[in-house]
Specification:
By secondary structure, the chain is mainly β. It is about 0% helix and about 75% strand.
């Protein structure tokens, strides 16, 4: 099942072909998350359709805790924690009017999250921490304003 993701990166061009920036966005994995990351993009020498490589490194912040219903029908309070985000990509930049461009890329996206359940099954109220790694292929369509 595809997971929706919406991100925005604000950055700077240090030298021809090297862009860096800080990104912020929204992703839905098992819960709503806000990824915060650094983005480095290297655009290869100019051609009609310009190839590029990109790397995003950062983490994610949960946008709330959820109340889940177990297989037994009772609610469990769940605390969600973020984790690291790594996303290398490669793609093609299509120049548009002015200096703007359309970017299409394919990559690997790794996101870690964890959550803690506080079960109401007994008087001891036991907690259990579960770690989840989301590994997926990403397909991105972006627009670059310069």
């Amino acid at each position: 099942m595809p997971f929706p993701s919406l991100t925005m990166v604000n950055g700077y061009c240090f030298q021809p072909g090297l862009f860096t920036g800080i990104g912020l966005g929204y992703e839905y994995l098992d819960c709503s998350m806000m990824p915060i990351f650094a983005d480095v993009k290297y655009i290869l020498p100019e051609r009609r359709h310009i190839p590029f490589v990109s790397l995003k490194l950062g983490g994610a912040v949960p946008l709330g805790s959820d109340e889940l219903y177990s297989d037994y029908g009772f609610a469990e309070k769940t605390t969600v924690y973020g984790g690291i985000l790594i996303s290398p990509e490669f793609g093609v930049l299509f120049p548009q009017k002015g200096k703007n461009a359309l970017l299409v890329s394919v990559g690997y996206h790794h996101q870690e999250i964890s959550y803690e359940n506080f079960s109401n099954r007994g008087p001891e109220n036991l907690g259990q921490r579960t770690f989840v790694n989301f590994n997926r292929i990403s397909f991105r369509i972006s627009y670059l304003f310069r």
